[in-house]
Amino acid sequence: MSRQPNQEFQEWWNKQQKAHGSDDLFPSSSENSSFFAVEIRSPTVDEKERTRSARQLSWIYLLKFQQIANSIAFLTNSFISIVRTANRRIVTSNSAPPRSDSRLYSVIKVFLTVSVILLVFELVAYFRGWHFSPPTVESASAEVVDLAEYVYANWLDIRANYLAPPLQSLTNMCIVLFLVQSVDRMVLVFGCFWIKFRRLKPFAEIEYSSDVENLNAEDYPMVLVQIPMCNEREVYQQSIAAVCIQDWPKDRMLVQILDDSDDLGVQGLIKAEVQKWQQRGVHIVYRHRLIRTGYKAGNLKSAMSCDYVKNYEFVAIFDADFQPTPDFLKNTVPYFKGHDDVALVQTRWAFVNKDENLLTRLQNINLAFHFEVEQQVNGWFINFFGFNGTAGVWRIKALEECGGWLDRTTVEDMDIAVRAHLCGWKFIYVNDVKCLCELPESYEAYKKQQHRWHSGPMQLFRLCFSDILRSKVRMGYLS
């Protein structure tokens, strides 16, 4: 229901309009300060975008400034680290005794110095424009030129006539070696594919059962287990325990702890661990050398000289950081049965810290190719591969026939493998049996390991090259 209009108010309003007019009823702000008008309007789209763009630009500049600051801090820290490392190396080299290979380092320093000087000279020639029209010796001699141009012309002549040919020959040789290595890798990969496709595996004549009640000890050959170690404070307990719990008759196995530690505290800890397992009925002995000659090779050679070794047929070798599974001997020793010409049964390494950091991941990729492809293909097709120094079982007769352990190189494992192969012995690689171990997690430890692994084969090549040429191993033997 609508309201009734107020007639009295309407009449009064009309009278006021006639008497004063409409302008007097609503005076402007200039006439009466008590009345003012405020215009309220929403910002336009352009103003919003302008405000938003300014804010975004300020954040972008802040992020750019932060990135620049982080880059400067990173470069500064890297430069300081390089300077500290160089200073430490210089101090160490000055305090260290003179090395036998100082001549090689002197040659390298001279070569680097000459290279830097020649590089500076090439830069000068570049900025003078000589690289567009290089001067010749004849033109430099006929014309009046400065000394730098004359020297540069002679340098170009020496570089073209005397340095380029041997460098080109060296480059060609490197290309040939690269092609040879590439073909070798392709053949190994195809061989691995063939093994996987045909499901080829080495065959064992016997298989040991897990039935302890019907165990016949005469079926188990005498096995000697050796663990060479030196100041292994962190891993000695795990390695000794893993060997002592082998699923093998106790009276058919003897464990030798070959300790070369020079730390009396570590020696006491290892002796106590050996005594603990002796009390549990394990046949285990502790051996320590007063004079550590030959390092690992000398340690193994000293252990094999014991009188009781002649009572054993096989020897299993484990480094201090390896932990074999309890069925390791049961999975490896049967491959010797019925194969009297087999000297070595090598197993695969499995790494417990392969995902620790980037360095261990890269090492795992490299060593996985070594075991999965190289060792497996060579073991199946030619019955020979390099002994890895651990996680393998040797026939003691083969060790004695090839001359035993020698300390003439840093890779005594590869040395004895080559000598055993030259004597006509065969090897078997078992890819299904794995032995747990650890990878070097720091760059310093990895560098030491790689130095030993790469310098040793070159020494061995120099020592065994003539023996390989005079060997009577026929090509038919490799098939």
Question: What does it look like?
Answer:
With 479 residues, the chain is of the alpha/beta class. Helix content is 55%, strand content 10%. The protein has a seven-stranded mixed sheet with strand order 3-2-1-4-6-5-7, sandwiched between helices. Strand 2, helix 8 and strand 3 form a beta-alpha-beta unit.
Describe the global form: extended
State the major sheet. Answer: 7 strands, mixed
Number of DSSP E strands: 7
Main structural class: alpha/beta
Using brief descriptors, characterize the structure shown.
seven-stranded mixed beta sheet; 10% strand; alpha/beta; 479 residues; disordered C terminus; single chain
List the helices and strands and how they pair.
Blueprint: H1 7-20, H2 22-25, H3 45-95, H4 102-128, H5 137-142, H6 147-198, E1 223-229, H7 236-244, E2 253-259, H8 264-279, E3 284-288, H9 295-304, E4 314-317, H10 328-332, E5 342-351, H11 358-381, E6 392-395, H12 396-401, H13 412-422, E7 426-437, H14 443-470
Parallel strand pairs: 1-2, 1-4, 2-3, 5-7
Antiparallel strand pairs: 4-6, 5-6
Helix pairs in contact: 6-11, 7-8, 13-14
Give a short overview:
Residues 315-461 form the Glycosyltransferase 2-like domain. The chain is an alpha/beta fold.
